[in-house]
Amino acid sequence: MTLPWYQEPSTDEGQILSSRVRLARNVKKYPFKFKLDAAGAAVLVSETTAAVTTGQNYFHRLDIHSLGQTEQKVFLEKHIVSPEFLKDSLPKGLLISESENISVMVNEEDHIRIQAVEPGKNLAAAYKMAELIDDLIEESVEFAFHMEYGYLTACPTNTGTGLRASYMIHLPCLDKSDLIKTLLPHIAKFGITLRGIYGEGTAPMGSIYQISNQNTLGKSEEDIITGLQSVTENVITQEQQALEKLLASRREYLEDRIYRAYGILTNSRMISAKEAMDLLSDIRLGFLTDILQKPKPSKQIYQIMMEIQPGHLQRRAGEEMTDEERDSARAKHLRELF
């Protein structure tokens, strides 16, 4: 059985935690989602489900509306669904593989959003898997496609290939030094953007960002992926240079920060999600640089970062929790792991 991407050791081996490819598609015979009525949306869900699942049991379907708020939060924290997908009451479909690395959202911003995630730096594999699902669906339905413009989408920035490629990337040194701000206008010139941990409109947590292409029109899939890889390599180089400078000029400060993080995580009785994410970021940096000479936890750092989010904590407890109860449960979980 394939492990979920966040359980793979490669997520802890460098700046890049994961590689993701999302394909936006719309079915020709239906209006875009913002003009789609409930009856049409329900039929679209049924047709897409049949296209993906007929003759195989690799995917299973979940009714997102039947899930409680806690379970919905868990799927959001795992990056399986987007905030957009949870917004309205229109019939929706969520098709997901056993490992949760491949998913299809029906009636998000577009009719169909195909997502494939691979651990570490492996965009090619993520794109290959997304393309296979894309071809599978297209055997049964006709996508909205224009010979000049490409795939037609609800948002003009996705028109063309409909491809949004991204890396989840850990940039603790750039983030802490505010050098991250100087990167934004530079990478924007190449059609690349840096967003928060849960994508557009969200803030970074634990110095983790999503770096992705902005536009797809007039570019091939290969051009998009190659361009993203090139810009990301440059960003990583700047992160490593910032780290080297810090090690050369303020090593004791960095060691102190990392060991303080370890001390707090192993002893705190209450801790907020934001503080815990920042401390886990320092711990991850400590292991990457070999500064932290302590046993590694049994789980990957990013998996721990997910497990301390509100949805995961409440699902583990089996009940809704207050902020204070979550802070206490979070601290207890971290003490047990470290």
Description:
By secondary structure, this protein is α+β, with helices and mostly antiparallel strands. It is 43% helix and 16% strand. The chain is built from 11 helices and 10 strands. The chain has helices at 38-53, 69-77, 123-138, 172-176, 180-188, 221-249, 251-267, 273-288, 301-307, 310-317, 323-337; strands spanning 16-25, 59-62, 93-97, 102-106, 112-119, 145-146, 150-151, 163-170, 192-195, 208-213. An 8-stranded antiparallel sheet has the order 2-3-4-5-1-8-10-9. Helix 2 packs across helix 10 (310-317) and helix 7 (251-267) packs across helix 8. The longest helix is centred in the C-terminal third of the chain and has 29 residues, at 221-249. The chain is globular. The chain starts with 15 loop residues before the first strand and ends with a helix. The relative contact order is 0.14. The mean pLDDT is 93.
